């Protein structure tokens, strides 16, 4: 019998990325778009791992099914690692991706290219309803550009230029991005773990 696996996100961009990363697994993959009435948990952990585990465990127990969840964000060296776990709400409650990007550019207004180094971090967590968990991490290094560029991706993708490239994640195709992205790296490792389960 095929087991259900719930992706603990209703973010349509993440659903698209994770569906592609998890395609071909011997699980029936769903997302929170299939459970629209479920209230989200508070994301108040101090680390990406803590938030990812909290979400995976919360939805797994609530829905009675294995869940995968991630928490990710960008850490900028010149800002002592900010926005970090506050990446999604850097510009305040209810802010948009454009608001967050605008704030980040403002914070780095006088910072030269040599000091605009940053890294995207993703922690991907798996949880069973009985409380068993597994976590993987993916990191990609790069720098923050001086202006948004590209129409693909979401979040800080229009500002982030990965190491060894001259274009932002938002200028990559989805498959190009997933080959090197933090989320792609974390979920490929998590996928290997899921494939090892009986």
Q: Could you tell me how far the N terminus lies from the C terminus, measured between alpha carbons in angstroms?
A: 12 Å
Question: Helix-strand pattern, N to C?
Answer: EHEHEHEEEHH
Overall structural class, as computed from helix and strand content, comes to alpha/beta
Q: Note the overall shape.
A: globular
> How many structurally independent domains?
1
The CATH architecture comes to Alpha-Beta Complex
Sheet with the most strands, sense and barrel status: 6 strands, mixed
Rg from Cα: 17 Å
- This entry's quaternary arrangement is single chain
Number of helices in the DSSP assignment: 5
Q: Based on DSSP secondary structure assignment, what is the total number of beta strands? A: 6
Q: Identify the strand order in the major beta sheet.
A: 2-1-3-4-5-6
Would you identify the regions where 5 or more consecutive residues have pLDDT less than 50? none
Written overview of the protein:
The chain has 198 residues and is of the alpha/beta class. It has a single domain, classed as Alpha-Beta Complex (Maf protein), CATH 3.90.950.10. Helix content is 30%, strand content 23%. It is built from five helices and six strands. The protein has a six-stranded mixed beta sheet with strand order 2-1-3-4-5-6. α1 links the parallel β1 and β2. α1 crosses α5. The longest helix is centred in the N-terminal third of the chain and has 16 residues. The N and C termini lie close together (12 Å). The model has no long low-confidence stretch (mean pLDDT 93).
């Amino acid at each position: 019998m095929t087991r259900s696996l719930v992706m603990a996100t209703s973010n349509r961009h993440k659903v698209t990325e994770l569906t592609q990363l998890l395609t071909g697994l011997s699980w029936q993959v769903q997302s929170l778009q299939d459970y629209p009435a479920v209230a989200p948990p508070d994301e108040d952990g101090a680390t990406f791992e803590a938030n990812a585990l909290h979400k995976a465990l919360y939805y797994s127990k609530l829905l009675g099914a294995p869940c995968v969840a991630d928490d990710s964000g960008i850490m900028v060296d010149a800002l002592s690692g900010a926005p970090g776990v506050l990446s999604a709400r850097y510009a305040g409650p209810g802010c948009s991706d454009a608001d967050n990007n605008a704030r980040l550019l403002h914070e780095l207004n006088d910072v030269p290219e040599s000091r605009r180094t940053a890294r995207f971090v993703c922690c991907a967590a798996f949880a069973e309803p009985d409380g068993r968990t597994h976590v993987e991490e993916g990191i990609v290094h790069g720098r923050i550009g001086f202006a948004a560029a590209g129409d693909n991706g979401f979040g800080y993708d229009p500002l982030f230029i990965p190491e060894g490239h001259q274009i932002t994640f938002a200028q990559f195709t989805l498959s190009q991005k997933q080959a090197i992205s933090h989320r792609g790296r974390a979920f490929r490792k998590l996928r290997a773990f899921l494939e090892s389960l009986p």
